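Task card 7
Instruction: Convert sequence to structure tokens.
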Amino acid sequence: MERGPGGERHRFGPRGFGRHGFGRHGRGGWGEEAGEGRGGRRRRVFDSSELRLVLLKLIADQPRHGYELIRAIEELTGGAYVPSPGVVYPTLTMLQELGHIAEADAEGARKPFTVTPEGTAHLAEKKEEVEALFARLAELASMRERTDAAPVRRAMGNLKTALLYRLERGDVKAETQHEIAAILDEAARKIERL
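Output:
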């Protein structure tokens, strides 16, 4: 078992579901995922085999425990992606079961993981894929930097508020809706020309 930042315990048994039972993947806090999918649902940044490689590479770079791995990924993406404990901890369990990592001897409740010779060999086998995955993390950070402009976010929030306020009133006629759409279309055209 390992303790999270708030002292909560994480299961590392054969089913290793993390501190939230079956894991609340992509639902705020630590579980933030990048991007919105259909219906407002967040999409995964990595599938399970890709996340295994990312975690394995980070552990090969230096021994780390689960919380450090979560924070390392957050730093690599500039905060654009923070994997949830409900995804990371079961993945660490799987890496242990595959013989790719092992708990290191250390004092305290948190035992860092180290890469095994089998894990090192696996990383060498998957070198190109690992490089592509880390390039994806760097691209997330770059995208976050390009799109995280506070004045634009503020203006978008104002627009959303104004639209909701106007459209929720019961007296909105079709003509008014068309006028609103025309204003938005014109704004989009002006932005494209910048």
